[in-house]
Fold each of these.
Amino acid sequence: MAVFKLDNVEDLYEIGSVLGSGHFGQVHEVRERATDVLWAGKFLKLKKGAGSRLGLERKSVEKEVEILQSLQHQNIMALKDVFESRAEVVLIVELIKGGELFDFIAEKENLTETEAIEFMKQILEGVCYMHQKTVAHFDLKPENIMLSDKHAPNPDIKIIDFGMAHRFIQGEEYKSLGGTPQYIAPEIINYEPLGTAADMCLSGLSPFQGETDEETLRNIVAMKYEFEPHYFSQTSNMAKDFIQKLLVKDQSERMTAEECLIHPWIKPLNRTQIAK
Ligand SMILES: COc1cc(-c2ccc3ncc(-c4cccc([C@@H](O)NCCN(C)C)c4)n3n2)ccc1O
């Protein structure tokens, strides 16, 4: 069983305002007393007993911590410390000040393909790194892609929220029904054995979005989508080719993160191929 620091987290960190909350618990800004450095603290309530419906199993928190401890990459949120008390575990991670990529893009008049390629390249580098470590995120969606500093000329992408992540062991079969309807892979909906390919269905606006979750899931299983002119009239054919090679039902036919990084949209063969 993993042992986390038993110190009282408030002896070392001043707990600040809530930054956000969700299935993952509550995230607070925290100030390290010894250095005045600001971090983010994710506060996770543990189940009080086997029959308790509230809180998380300690085993699932240990799994998330073990995965985060194994990942050191500039495009993946870094874990600094873990504290536990009788009822809660606190993960101290790097504070990401630039907000969600989705909001950054929404606030811009328009995003050029060159800017989109730069963000996609960073996302792919983080995802490729975790896949090489046989880790799948399993909840990649726009809200979990954040920016280090949205005012920087070239903001760094930071992938957060590894609460659904899984490290594959050679030869094991893993299935899950978790995830967010608009962004989950068809193999998850069909409860088939999963692999890192399930992470490769990431998109900004889900092309499968239906009126209801049920309709969205039907669209994903049918791989029913179209490049709506309203959104794609200015999109290059190279970019559409990139998307089409990801939105593939058969996970073994879907581009891997490594293949994405050498796709001509991301890595042009020559200057004339640069997306206008
Ligand atoms: C360690 O696990 C997590 C960390 C974080 C995290 C880490 C650093 C950090 N710096 C700033 C924030 C932040 C700021 C505003 C909102 C949120 C969060 O509530 N929304 C992010 C997306 N959400 C769907 C997880 C998070 N975070 N969030 C979020 C979810 C996690 O499961």
Amino acid sequence: MSASLQAVLPLVDISGLSSPDPLVRTAVGHQLRAAGERHGFFYLCNHDIPTTLIERVFADSERLFALPEGERMALDKALSGCNRGYEPLRAQTLEAGAPPDLKEGFYIGVDLPADDPRVVAGKFNHGPNQWPTSLPGFRDTMDAYFAAAYALAGRVMRGLALSLELPEDHFAPFVDDASATLRLLHYPPQPPNPSPGEKGCGAHTDFGAITLLLQDQSGGLQVLDADSGEWIDAPPIPGTFVVNIGDLIARWTNGRYHSNLHRVINLSGRERYSVPFFFTGNPDVVVECLPNCLGPGESPQYPPVTVEQHLAECYRRTYG
Ligand SMILES: O=C(O)CCC(=O)C(=O)O
Ligand SMILES: [Fe+2]
């Protein structure tokens, strides 16, 4: 990574949040605050998710997207009723007005049986996962990684509470029984003659509270620098996640923390694989401006919304 880039997107060592020393934890909070207020993006290191597990996630993701089309389509998320399973190429348009995204995906969420009261009640995105039957070990890998990323997201939420000078467990009602989505993504190489504006992932902000992103070595992720209007690269750094603040934190903080635009253009000439984990939180929580994020004379930029309402609207907007 170039030195200038390192200066732009900060690196936060998350292990400090586990320190018994409150000053060390608060120092991590300060770093998160600076990152949230600037680009809303940072690299996170010293998470304790094993490299071997991360490698298995990428290997199994490649195996999934290498399945014959018929097998992938048998897991089409259109068949699921709760947005789980396979999403074909060009199914989503993250950037309004741009061509559909040049990516295919696979969605995994909290696995709930059909008789769970929340599923029976028809809550948005609640239900069972769809699993490929021809890939031994796939489900175990994804279950293990889902649990690890879920726990890490909970730690980051504690850090964000500290960053906002709130009690560390302030977001506990949001973290308890949280919804989250693990998304496997596969981007073919950008075609030599793309349609105007065609990208792997059009410019968008993420819908949830935070996103923990793993990417392979291809590069291609770009983050908007709102001050200069330029796109800055967020290349992979081994051993780290790229973490970004999503729309819910922007709403909570009245825009003090940025849910920043980002996009993917896979210019590597090869297949690109990435794995975002969206921590969307407890669907019943009402997200509204935190009192300590409202300066004198300011009014809330966003009306209160439940997590569930917000997510349903974001899906409607980008899937049509
Ligand atoms: O593939 C990536 O690097 C980013 C994906 C992304 O931004 C998303 O799925 O929201
Ligand atoms: Fe995103």
Amino acid sequence: MTYRLAITLGDPMGIGPEVVLKALADRQLTDEIEMTVVGSLSILRDTYARLAGGSEPVANPEELSVLDCPLPEEIERQLVLGTGNRASGWASFAYLQAAIAHTQEGKFQGIVTGPIAKSAWKAAGYDYPGQTELLAEASGTEQFGMLFVGRSPHTQWQLITLLATTHISLRKVPKILTTTLLDQKLQLLINVLQTRFGLDRPRIAIAGLNPHSGEEGQLGTEEIDWLIPWIERSRKIYPNLTLDGPIPPDTMWVKPAQAWYDSSFADSACDAYIALYHDQGLIPVKMLAFDRAVNTSIGLPFVRTSPDHGTAFDIAGRGIAQSTSMKAAIQLATELVYQRNVIGRSFSQDFLI
Ligand SMILES: NC(=O)C1=CN([C@@H]2O[C@H](COP(=O)(O)OP(=O)(O)OC[C@H]3O[C@@H](n4cnc5c(N)ncnc54)[C@H](O)[C@@H]3O)[C@@H](O)[C@H]2O)C=CC1
Ligand SMILES: NCC(=O)COP(=O)(O)O
């Protein structure tokens, strides 16, 4: 069987089209699996015309498989390169919807999404916190997670980070974090570590919520009230698992940072890290691996990955966007599609960036 990935352009006025064309110029990447770009051919042609002949190779859209999503004239007129607005939000939403519909028909086994601006979606009337939630809703998935995977170019050690909560205001974090939510996220994480990453007895670290994990209640009581009891209960439920924590959130990232640069620290680092809220997890991930981390949605009935960066409107059209995170997203999606669909196939370490 031939496996196929859909690659959406994301916001057409951001760097999505540029990083897609740069990534697809990499032959090694495109040899592994068939890929179809989902977006507007007119945008791809404009991007190619701007970038071709520059310092970095770019794929020619005429030589790619493209699922064209032509834009209505009224939308096209409102597009402004480097700006996310109602029209660009309309377009990026349409691209993702098309990719989902074709995936559900069985045309694709996975989707790699270009970055979108949530504010542009909102301006276009689409009220979703992000692409993850649309993918979950469209596929009828109630329990899903946002996982970031980055492989160190220095040591090959992998930083795997699950966000227990995602796109919500900081004020809401303590209200939304419950032991039921953590049960669901932990179960999803264990499942993906075992089935997709081959980690049968994973060691997982979980961050505290408060500074110094509450300092025995002096700086906050969530740890004493429910987080420590939840960790103790989870250790009994999953005896094959090592669950460390709650670890003071500032120091939790010291060992991963050491393992990122020096393989002699790999054994003291954990297989995966659970951050309780968006920035607690993504500041260290982006500090270490902004150029190569991949956001993957777990729990969906198909594979979904995305680069970790956003639309970068500030550099759109300048030809200087790095495509390494998009390449890593395509590579990880390829690996996950094969792992889901081809029993027993595994990839060598050097397959991944
Ligand atoms: N997967 C997705 O769809 C994501 C979307 N976003 C959205 O992106 C928009 C902009 O978010 P920001 O916080 O500004 O983050 P951003 O990642 O777009 O940009 C942050 C900084 O990094 C630079 N940068 C980003 N990607 C780069 C690349 N590939 N090569 C070179 N430089 C790069 C930008 O120029 C900017 O200076 C927001 O609307 C946000 O919601 C943010 C993260 C992920
Ligand atoms: N910070 C991660 C992010 O914004 C990705 O969101 P999503 O569009 O993948 O849901």
